Amino acid sequence: xxxxxxxxxxxxxxxxxxxxxxxxxxxxxxxxxxxxxxxxxxxxxxxxxxxxxxxxxxxxxxxxxxxxxxxxxxxxxxxxxxxxxxxxxxxxxxxxxxxxxxxxxxxxxxxxxxxxxxxxxxxxxxxxxxxxxxxxxxxxxxxxxxxxxxxxxxxxxxxxxxxxxxxxxxxxxxxxxxxxxxxxxxxxxxxxx
Length: 193
Fold this sequence. Notes:
Layout lengths: L1 E5 L1 E6 L1 H10 L8 E10 L3 H4 L3 E7 L2 E10 L2 E9 L1 H8 L7 H9 L7 E16 L2 E10 L2 E9 L3 H14 L10 H12 L1
Antiparallel strand pairs: 1-6, 2-9, 3-4, 3-7, 4-5, 5-6, 7-8, 8-9
């Protein structure tokens, strides 16, 4: 089973703040990665009610199914590789069972046959190592919206908090309560209906 604990800190940015941060950390020399997340949920939002989310991510022609669940130090992520054909079946609401994901879903009281495809979110991402963390700048597009985000991925809560605080203070960027991408996606989807 492929699992990991994700410890990350996020802050939404204006386009101008995004550009300033990109210039400050010399992100212009970093490769741009484009990835698309395809989100799934039950009709009665069982995953969301438990603070969980299920997505397929296409990145570098690789397809990965990921279940995110709350964990005391961040998020527990369970991953399973998919072929392009399997991913397309999922998007057509014909989920292909992956044992590790099925097991975790069962613990949440969710059956894969009850999952439906909700839509997608595309992110243009740049990332680099910085002070023992990974600093990520994301420009995301979904439901006719776009947003800019700073994300810090760290090995510990303390380290992540220290780096994001330092960067925000140094560039005079206000700390903003920032929902994760899936929550922002849900809000946009609900407002578009």
